[in-house]
Each structure stands twice: as structure tokens, then as C-alpha cells.
UniProtKB/TrEMBL annotation:
One Pfam family here: Wzy_C
Location within or outside the cell: Membrane
Membrane association type: Multi-pass membrane protein
Annotated ranges, domain O-antigen ligase-related: 206-366
Origin species: Marinobacter alkaliphilus
Name of this chain's protein: O-antigen ligase family protein
PANTHER family: LIPOPOLYSACCHARIDE BIOSYNTHESIS PROTEIN PA4999-RELATED, TEICHURONIC ACID BIOSYNTHESIS PROTEIN TUAE
Claim: Transmembrane is one of the keywords in the record: yes
Top-level taxon of origin: Bacteria
Amino acid sequence: MLSADVSVCPRKTYRASSVAFAFFIAVSGLAGMKLVIGAPLHWFLALTAFTAWAALRPEPLVRTTLSVFTELLSLKPGWLFFWGAWLCFCLGILVAGAANGWVGVYTVPKYLVLMGVLWLLVAFVPTNGEVVRGLYLLALVGLLGLVIIWFSGYREWLVFPPKRFGWEFLPPGVIWKTGVFLLPPLCWLLVNQRSPSVFHWMIFGVACVLVGLDGSRTATLLAAMTWLVCVTLRWLRYGPSRTFFKRVVVVALWMAVLIGGLNPSPWNPVIHIYSALGEVIPERMLSPEADSDASIVQVGRDMGSDSIRTAMLIEGVRGVQEHFLLGSGFGTTVAQTEGMSVPMVVHMTYLQVLADTGLIGFMGYLGIFVVPLWYFFSALRESDAPWDLFDQNVLPLGIIGIYLFGGLFHPVSNEISEWAIVLPALAMLFKVTERFEGERRL
């Protein structure tokens, strides 16, 4: 599931392209970098690495890239729906902008560039191994960067709002994304494989720590749901057993301690253990100005009520009611509360997209994800070995599942940092049907 088939690639070429792809994932995932070096340079670095990945692959660059255009000319429904969804989304942004003084149309060129990235991904299709190595690199950079900055004295690079931890390139609200996309494939491997390697347990621990450091309630909920889904599917596949129960309990405890212990909600009993440990950690590890009573581990935010989110939901619903058909313009559905200095974009992707881009853009946005998922599950239904096919695609399924669920609590973005991990998953799932049909004909 997490291995790559490299038999068709010359070793040196594969290594070079794999390194370039890992660099593309890692650089793109460092979302805070664009605030330090500027968004244009951030895009340039990410796209340079991505272009190198495509150019260094053994397949002919031009012919393979044009093959996507050939498939479009064949008028296959899947290809038309797949690319039509992106164009429909962009059209929704343009229509909404035209109806509201062209507000928000600046984002269309970015989405067209992202379509170009997806075009190459569909043409070459990254392997599970390439994507996983990129996620490994991103996770290690995220954690090691924080540790090195913390202990080397460059405290100005740390970003420590109350009860949350991060650094300039990966501030709180972003750092959880460096670990959460690894949870589904690793959790699935740990509950299914008889003898998981020490490395997989270690990288799973790193992913959990990154989620815990952020203190994101969305990520904590996603981690719990990942465990529940993996356990349920494993039960349906093999049935209960003593080994199964032991394994899922160990995985649950691992996640509870590393995620819930670092930034738990007040109802999490693990906080009492970590609070006690926090009292013995030297206060100098916090900052030179730390209070004498400070503890490195503090009670995290409650998972319960949130007045700002409530206000956002109300504004999102109001925006949908008022601009359902044509939209109000990309990025215009915002909420303002007394605790906020400036209005903030509604943190609920589906209400935001429907209110901002109208029905056309909303249908296009949903189609971006529904089309590849529909064709994948169609292939799964017709497969003679559906579980094997599922095993091979846990990674892209997990990425898309996390992204779609996260949209319930976060806005949509037009930055490469938000799409670099999702686009490979879309390409991988969309092309599964083609590979599956080819295998059936053989």
C-alpha cells in the first residue's frame, strides 16, 4: 500500500524525479513560507520542483502531456466531467465577479495554474511511494524545524499563541496538515498488517505529535474519525479477533497520548498526566520572559461552543439566501464579531463556495471531487478483488476524505499550499478506472 512500483523506471531517473516530487510536496506544504518570502516566490519554488518531477520521469514529456488532450478529444464522459467540473468552478467565479463589479476574479488565473498542475499529474500519475515520501519529508521538516528553532535560540521564529505551537513556516492552523494526511494510510497499515515496522510506528507518532502541537479541533476530530473508520472497515473485512482488539487499542492509546496529551480539550483525562509533566519542565524552555508559574503544556481549547464559528455559519447561510444563483464574488462572504479586528472569510467551504460563486461554481467545486470518487467506486464495485484495490488506494482516499471533511470547518483556498497534496490524490483516483479497465481486458 505504501510501496512504489519502480520496476519500469531507470533507477537514477526515478530517484531524481522522486526527490523532486518530495520537494514539491514539502515546499508547497510549508504554507507560512509565502508570508516570509512572498507568495510569487513560494509558487515559483513549488512549480519548479513539480516541473522537474515531470521532466525527469522516463516517459516522453511532450507525448505523455498531450495524451490528456487526446483523451479529451475522444469525448469520454469521465474525462469531460472531470475537466468540465474545474471549468465550471472557474466559470462560477467569473460569473459571480461579473455580477458584482468583478470582485474575486483575480483568483481564476491561480485555479487555471492548478488545473495545469493537475493536467501533468493525470498524464504521469504519481505513485503511492512518491506521494508518501513527500508527506514524510513534509512531516519531518515540520517537526525538526520546530525543535531546532526552539532549542537553537531563534525564538522570534516561534509562533506560540495560547496553548498552540508552531513556527513561521508552519504556524498553528497549518502545522496539523503536515501530519494529518499521513494518519489514514498509516492507521490502516497498523491495524491490518501483522508485523508493522518500527519505522511505520515512528512516523505515525510524528504525524500524531504534529496534530497535537497545533491544537486544531478539526484535526483532533479527523484523527478520531480516521481511527474509527479504519477499525470499522478492518472488522468488516476480517471479523473480530484477539490480535485485532489489541492492535486497535494500542493505536488508540498512541493517538490519545500524542494528540490528546499535547493539546487536549478539558474533558480529556490525559491532560492530568501532561499537566504533571509540564510542572517539571524547566520554564526556560518556554521563553526568557516566561512567568514562574508557566508550564509548557497547558489545557487546550474546548471542543464545544465557539461564538465566532456560530457567527460565520449565520453569515454563510445569509450569503446563500441572498446570492444563491449568481454568487457575491469569491472571498466576499465574511463574518465580523467583537473579538475580531477585521472580517474573516466564512470557515465553512460549502456555504462559502455556494454564497461566493453561486450555483454554477458550487456544482463545479463538488464535481472536482465527486467525479474521481464516482469512477473509483465504480471500479471497486466491478473488481474481482475489491479489498486489494481499496488497499492500493487508501492514501488518495484518505487525503480526499480529510480534505472534504475539513471543508466543514475551513474556507476554500486558491494557494498551492492547500492543493499540492489534494491534486495528486484526485489524479490517482481518476486514473484508477483506466488502469482497472486495462487489467480487465488482459
